[in-house]
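Why does this matter for the project? Reviewers at the last site visit asked to see concrete outputs rather than summary tables. In response, this paragraph embeds two records directly. Each consists of the residue sequence and, immediately after it, the corresponding structure tokens. Nothing has been edited or filtered.
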Amino acid sequence: MELNRVVKKELSREELLDLSLGTLEQIHNNYDPIYTIDRIEKMFAKALTGEWAIVWIKDIESDMLYSITVDKHKKTFIPLGKGIIGRSYRENETHYVKQAETNPDYDATVDNVLGVEQKDIIFHPIHDSQETRTIAILQVSNHKRDIQQFTTSDVDKLKIVSKYITPFLEMIHNGTYTEEHNKSGNTTVNADSAYNEAIEKLKGEKEKAEAMMASSTRFLAEVAHEIRTPMNAVMGFLELLQMDEQDEEKQLYLDTAIKSGNMMVALVNDLLDFAKIEQGMMELETLVFNPIEEFTGMGPLFSSRMKKAEINYHTFIDPNMPAKIASDPHRIKQILSNLLGNAVKFTPKNGRILLEVIYDKGADAIRFSVTDTGKGIAKDKLKDIFSPYRQEESSTSRKYGGTGLGLSISQNLAGLYGSKLEVESEEGHGSRFFFSMPLKEKIIDGPMEYTQEMYDHLNIVLIFENSCQSTSDILEEYFAAFGIPAAKIRKEQSWESVSLNDATHVFCGRDTINKEAIQRLLDRDISVTIMKADIFTNYKEGLKGKVTELSCAFGPDKLYKVMFERDLLKEMDRERPVNSKALIVDDNSINIQFLKAVLGRLKIESDGALDGKEALEAYRRSMESGTPYRLIFMDESMPVMTGLEATQQILEIEKAKGYKHVPIIGLSGDATNDHREKCIEAGMDDSVTKPVHIKVISDLLEKFSE
């Protein structure tokens, strides 16, 4: 039996109630005990994402339990005094056991009458309506090859759903589950009254669950909005400072602060994702982005952690990837962040971690991998490595922290891309985690073309010692990806052997720095690049000329700048036209100041308004004066008049006066799809989430330009 499940589907309370409701409707007015028990068993298996479920009924006349579904032609009896199931009955407690066969109480003759390859089992006593005696034991188990495991939350689920079907199990236990008994009215429990009472309770519980979910989602959205508003200003002004900063060291500090801020925003977004994960409704966004630009940023993000752990960190981001694709970069980076974070935990001092992002043209996919030289994973642990709440060793959580959910969530996210997160590992020899993103119908613009004329003049020299050989290897991999012939590259053991007549670019490691020799090359206008693992150390201090420092976690854009003195990302992107004037509507004056500054950099004039009413007046003035706005940025949550109300009134004026439509872009701290749809329904042309990055604004100007 091949199992396709890779991540446990956690049912929300609302879904559990729906499942109970559906089961009750199936068994109502049936009076066939075998059919009823079969439906109930299927309900419990689905509630816990189990493979098998059996309801064991307590025999009234003996110390035995029996099933009427194991063999539908006769009752299957088991004694009460044996196995884990017997212990659950005697102690009147729920028992959930992991790796059941290793439990000292396990007895296959009673705990595994089906003779199946079960791994974890839950035994749950079910009591009568008076809570005075145990009338049945519910058994739910999963398959050995299934990666899920049961938790205490599964016991809570059993309690939620079991109370609605207990009356029917009690009638079957008492032998009164017949149409005649039901009509006579002489039974303690009546099927019709039990059904009606359960349905009424279920509907009430469902309404409460829906209200709680709506309230929780609203609360998270409001909190996220309040956090995003100040973050919009923090992130925005950092980006503006970075644009003006010439000092490379300060540029590095600003870049690190911006990337850290982006991580904070991602955490806020995860708060909103929580509700979706609980309901199994996680979805991917579709954004147009440059994969080189997006994934290159993963390198510097982890550099400081690598330095602290004294780990050699390298990245290779394929410069031959498509210029633009349509997908969800955030979830990919979420997976990579998790894989890199795990690699840092388990890689020792002086170990190596490599992040690779490679375009596989033949398979029409981008391949991602994180390789480390860490402790590796034992062969018998590999099958469980993606299980929720599982670590390779029981001491892992105590030593390294974490919940054990990361790889499971990452596996789930990879599945959304039509992929699968896989692992290759050998104990003591490191691990490699990898997955791919199929690009079928997702490529917007093709790869950059690197022509021979670009590298005809190049003569590259590499000077690296053994300790930095991996950096040299990465450089050669990049040169090959750019199309630079191997004949243009040579390796030297010393600075004295470098020819001053034909060398154009010299690369060295931090261990081979010779400032006197480097300065001689710089004086001859030869470019020198120092590769460094420590991004915060200035190795080029005192040197004058075309000298550059590159972190070992560099991307193709940095190397392209060194080799060709051109901007790779700009060359991959076409020129964007500019617009003349915009209106910024936001009740936070700091956000207005930020957007004004950004638009000014893009040569766009702008006006500001603090609420929808002011925006409406500014819009009227601009149209009446014959100088309409080219774009309106509209905050959605404002006093006096909301952005949605202002948008609707602007559209009404356009229709009544015959004005040309002015695109309206919603500004919000709420990133949910429902909220975006509400904005579009109100008449907005697009909606962006705070904090708004400079690139997003630039893209919007291009999108809605005339």
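We now turn to the second protein, recorded in exactly the same manner.
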Amino acid sequence: MADKILNLKIDGKEVHVPEGTTILNAAKSIGIKIPSLCYSPDLPAWASCGICIVHPVGTQRMMRACCTPVSEGMDIVTHDPGLVQARRTVLELILSNHPDDCLTCSRNGNCELQTLAAEFGLRTIRFDKILKNQPVDDSNEAIVLDRNKCINCGRCVEACQIMQNVWALEYTGRGDKTVIGPVAGKNLSESPCVRCGQCAVHCPTGAIYSTHSNRKIWDRLGDPEYTSVVQIAPAVRVALGEEFGYAPGELETKKIYTALRKIGFDYVFDTNFSADLTIMEEGTEFVNRFTAGAIKGHLPQFTSCCPAWVDYCEKNYHDLLPNMSSAKSPQQMMGACIKTYWAQNMKLDPKKIFSMSIMPCTAKKWELQRDENMSSAGTRRDVDTSITTREFAHLIKQAGIDFENIEESEADSPLGQYTGAGTIFGVTGGVMEAALRTAYKLITNEELEDINFTSVRGLEQVKEAKIDIKGTEVRVCIINQLGNVDKIIQKIRTEIAEGKEPSYHFVEIMACKGGCIGGGGQPYGINDEVRKARIAGLYRDDEQCEIRVSHKNPDIIKVYKDFFGKPCSELSHKLLHTKYTERDVYEVN
């Protein structure tokens, strides 16, 4: 049954929208912008800031546009002198509790509060300054919490609790004593936080942000004793351009390679290569489990590429850790290859290699520390530093690079060539699709005619598919966003406990909505339109690749022939696989 269409007026313009549409979105549909601070299209409207107020024609009754649904015949005014003055007063009250250190703030130039203050021409504040004077929590390897800049909009809490079901953040206190943070005054490092960064990417100010490594990077690049090596993740190439005025989803891969060389890196590799390598290891592991039969507790196999999901599982699902693929993530596999296989070929001391990754993900910063005790080359870490897409944009600007007009170049070999399967790792369902393309070959020793598994694509919260591999049914599940994990996990737990045939053989889980393209380290301003554009960009990259299955990547074939021997060999298990540890939800340091 089609949605009922309601007819109304906004600022004198006729609007026709489905029943249930809010005033804010109805206005947006006809090009009218109503200012707001607490609203995000990803989250339930909470109506905390009061800046989006509007009123019906002929009355001064105020309504909050973000949470008020339209009704038939409604006639709304969104801007008049009274509304402007009321919004200005709200902004002044918020700013009276907000520090004025914009120049050194992580969000300077990209802060929603700063933008609104500029739009309203605020030069002075009529109210006394009363700051929170809360300590900055930098105990976490990935996320910093500065409550002094918090405006209590609630976006981070909603993202953490509703989107992710992590519950690391909540409200403490009442009225002007309200602060946001972990329960009982704990630090982020002691909380259930999984470093996914969705709190940071949804925060409108600089109250929550990712840790920064730019100074360390410049120091290392300036040290002649070190050979500097960098890798870029799949999702970075379809999002970085947004920081330079490009539309979401535009592929700028070869410009990125050039920019990294201009910044000063000696060698530029592509994480898409190690995504192909991950498929060979994880895919082989799955085939070994699957063909051995449904050994109790060994199926389904969970993907292990997302560190926030790994963190979540280590804290919440101890009984299912044996089901996690032991394959390291592409970031960590690339780091291992750089400091072993590549270092040996180049006759370089691994301890004198500075290895950096550029990731769409804040949890990747934690992953470096997680694998410290499993370093492959006798160094402290296989990857020394990880930065986000946002930090990478800062590096480019600091280096004075004209990104729009920069020339294109290729990645270095032998760790730069990739297939279409490698690039789709950055989208929800992409790891599964890439694995199935190669699993078919590993099981049947034949190539697929149609490698496009469209049933696992899209932004649906949970996607299920049955794949026929020459008469053998493989059942898969793709979980998009941590908040959707638990109901599927409970189903799996019940089946294992009762000894039933598993509903799924292979399960992909990505912590962030849309997969890595929606990661906590990507450019601000995320919504489903942006996610879809970035996803489309990676599928275009896949379609443009001459080779679209991991097992046909010539450099992958060479690295197994010359070094690892075969997937899941003794050497590859030592260098490319990891172990999991049962940990408490609330950690004590």
